[in-house]
Amino acid sequence: MNAQSAVETTTASVKPGSSKASSRLVYRHTLPIRIMHWINVIALTLMLFSGLQIFNAHPNLYWGNRSDQGKEWLSLGAQEDAAGNLVGITRIGQHQVTTTGVLGVSKGSDGTPVARGFPSWLTVPSAGWLAMGRRWHFFFAWVFVLNGLCYIGYSLARKHLQRDMWPTRADWRGIGRSILDHIRFKHPHGAEALRYNILQRLAYLCVIFVFGIGIVLMGVAMSPRMDAVLSPLVEAVGGRQSARSIHFIIAWAFVAFVVIHLFEVLVSGVFNQLRGMITGYYKVDSVKPEPAMPVAAVPETLVPAELAPGRTVTAQTPIVEDPRHE
Predict the structure, then answer these.
(1) Which ranges of the chain would DSSP assign to H, the alpha helix?
(2) Single pTM value for the model
């Protein structure tokens, strides 16, 4: 067998530019991360619903230290129309909109309209048990705080925070492309799907260090018992009523983050994402390149020594791979 025929035999079964697609499971989320994630899901959900029950006791928000009537920047109220029917009214500043059935007025346990800020199906542990709602809220607030401290400590110790969440210079340079990819619902595949993009990193950092810390501080600042300890913070935000307003705003910022997060889970593969956060294993697509360099037309003077006349070509003979598949 001469060199030319050896080359032709070696490349005959190779399709130029072909690649074999496959998938593999990668252990992406460690057990402590998964446990803390689901604890947060439970704590935040019950904090929100119990917090809405507390809010219903006085469904108005103000800025400053005082809660004077007529000075509300947000109000969920009720009034009677000309026929004597209750109508739910939501006021934001000087603007108002009718929200009967959802905000201001909703159906009671017997089906009749009742004046209530948020409907009873959004409040726990019951429709109007303020004292127990406060207990639930404070209990799960402590769960949230302790779980958050454990998460930050674990992430720092394992360098998860520094390695996976802190943006790099390359991340900042690619922020425009990341925004366009999200607008087009274009999501990464393969090994690229295992790392957070710049928008994810910024979102998680904001949730942890702005929303998380902010909502806890504003919640504590609302307590009269903390005047001696956190009076500078209360004064910095403008007063106890301002702290309550900021607490309310951050709570709904959490809700907005969760809605976007769930949407991204749905469009990027809900089963794969749930498996990753339940079992830790995440499936990624991997492309295994096959030899793709046809060398049959290479001049004989450039044929490698392995293919020179008198040499036997075996299955172990290395073939140059297309550098585009690196």
Answers:
(1) 3-11, 31-56, 130-157, 160, 169-173, 175-183, 198-206, 213-221, 227-237, 240-278
(2) 0.78
